[in-house]
Structure formats: structure tokens, C-alpha cells
Amino acid sequence: MEAASPETVGSGRPEPVLLTEPADGVPPVVNSPDALAAAADALAAGTGPVAVDTERASGYRYSQRAYLVQLRREGAGTVLVDPIALDGELGPLVAALADTEWVLHAASQDLPCLAELDLRPARLFDTELAGRLAGFERVSLGALVERMLGYQLEKGHSAADWSRRPLPEDWLVYAALDVELLIHLRDAMHDELQQQGKLDWAHEEFEAARTAEPAPPRAEPWRRTSGIHKVRSTRQLAAVRALWQTRDEFARERDLAPGRVLPDSSIIAAAQANPRNEADLVAMPVFGGRHQRRRASMWLQALRSARRLDNSELPAASSTNEGPPPTNRWSDRDPAAAARLQAARSGLTAIAEENGLPLENLLLPDLVRRTCWLPPEDRSVAGVAELLRDKGAREWQIGLTAQALSEALHATPEEA
What we know:
Radius of gyration: 26 Å
Number of helices: 20
CATH topology of the largest domain: Nucleotidyltransferase, domain 5
Helix content: 40-55%
């Protein structure tokens, strides 16, 4: 499929062509071993890269497993696979796709759930990352397809409950369209990056995304409860922790999104009100609902366990932060570090603008902050380059930033 040739509207901008159906129609969902084997044979016989996407049930389920896997390859067409019906056994696909380049949009969102199915790309092209490196302000799939190919994707069901069975036909249309143009978008973005002289940068970024290790679990994930800043005492923090942990265990066992079990706002309200009995608890908003009334004893038990804690068992008033403090405190706590950070931001911003890059893609802001707060003993260009490499920066990033960051690390408050 070639890029659309839309007519020009009055403003002078081309009007995108609305894409509402896959060109070849919606294929039947692959939900049996025989159908999977046939689909895998078709994909193996295809040519060129394979477009890959998944649909999860975020907001409905605790897990981030894939409830649908979409693939498309030249010569094979589109394949929609139901990994739930296949009990996650997608061995034929693993073999069929072993040596192909995979094209994904925002790959970091899909790769973990694909890895759960033993699906791992040998090579990767991420169209969202490509858009960021190209300096585009809007990098959603729809925005890039419209800009690069002249098509408009019909807004669909990304936030739907994809664990539902059977999947409605209009959902399958949406899912198929997500991979319909992905290979063509890949080719257009490849040419754009090559024209900008950024293709080698992109290959480094794609490889980093492909091989990225899962983030380690947070030490105290309950501290991310929305509204926790309203909680003033450590005893109330203990109640938040107890309710959060109870909710998390309940949600994990039933594969329900925690927010559907009990909203964060209700956890905060209960921790502040500290109800002593079921009547007090169910009198509160949300807790009086039918489902929450059945769980009232569970929530009360969590609150009682927090009340029984010895003072030495209460959580600290704030989390232990191994990193630097908030930057708005640097001037008071360490003026030299504040001067280094100001100089680094100034230098890196200039480099990002010169190269048409988002600042956060030039170098991770957290890495910049940590380096400025506790600079290496060797602040030379070579020393900074070694530090950046050790922290996972790519060679293209090091080549662009090591000199400026080295200079910034020599800045003093008098120069700020």
C-alpha cells in the first residue's frame, strides 16, 4: 500500500483519508492449535519485517498479559491470535518469527507481555521512538500515520476490557487496523531518519529497547497511592500501607485491577477517618456499596492491624530516597550542585535544539541530575563518557553530550 494522495482542503493542508476497515477484511481469530500452525506457516512464508501489537486489559485486570496479539507481514496478511484460548502456548509463532525484524509502536509497552509468551524479537524497529528521534511533537500511532502516510485511523477501543470473550467485531477491526499500516510507517520513518542523519542513533535506541531489563520492583509501592500527601501522621501512613497491601493481595488473586477493587481515594479517606466498626466504615462513601459491604471485615482487619503496630513498626514519614533531593532545594543544600545542574541543562538544551531532539531523549533527566549532584572524580570528557556508558547511555548520546556535561561539572556558583 502506498501513501494516500488526499485532496487539499481550503487551509492548504491535505485532508487525511479515514481508514475504517482493513484492506483485506478482518481475519478470523486464531484460537486453536491447528489454526495457529497454519498462521505461523503463513507468516514464515511472508517477506520483510513483521508488524506486531498487543491488546491488554489495563484498568480491568491486575496482570499486564496480552489478551490479543496482532501480526502482519507482506505475503501473509494480518493474523489475530488469542493467547488465552491457546493457554499461552504460541510455540509455532516463536519459530516462525525467530529471524525477522519486528515493528512495534511504543515497544516498551508490548515487549514485556510478549516475553511472557516467549515471543522476543531478534531485531526491532520502534516507530514511536523513531518519531521522537525525528523531533516530531506528536508521536502517537495515529499522529504518525497521518503525518507520514496521509491516513487517519479511526479512534477505537484501546482502553477496552480485552479480557472479554467473545471479542466484539468492531474491536477486532480496531485491532487489525493497528498493524495495517505499521510496516509502511516503518519504511517512511526509516527514510526520514536516514535523511536527518539519525538512522544509526535509532538503531542504537531500538537495540536498547529490545534488550532492556525489567525495572526492579519498588521498595514501597504503597507510597504511590494517589492523595497520600494528605496523610499527616505515621499511624495513618501505616493504615494506608495495610489497606494498600490488602487490596493488592485481593486484586492479584482475582486478577482484578486494584483500582476496581477499591479506589485510592477511599484508602486515603479510611486511613484519615480510622473507622472502628463496620457501621462507621460502610457509612463512608464507596464503602457502603454492595461489593464493599461484603468486604467490610477485610478492610476493618487491615485498619486494626495498623492500629496494633508498635511505634517502632510504623513507616517513616517519607520514603528513603537514594537519589538527589528535589531540584528546587539544591540552591540551599548544595549551591555548587545547583550551579552544575544549571550549566548542564543549558548546554544540553542547546544540543537538543540543534539536533531537533526532545531533551529527555538526548539524555535521561534523572541521569543528568544524579551526575550533577554527585559528579565523578574524573570530570574530564573521557571520565564523563565512561560514567555515562556505565549508566546505560548510548554511544550516540555520549558523543553528543560528554563534552558539554564535562564542562558543566566544572561550573561554580559564581558562574551561575
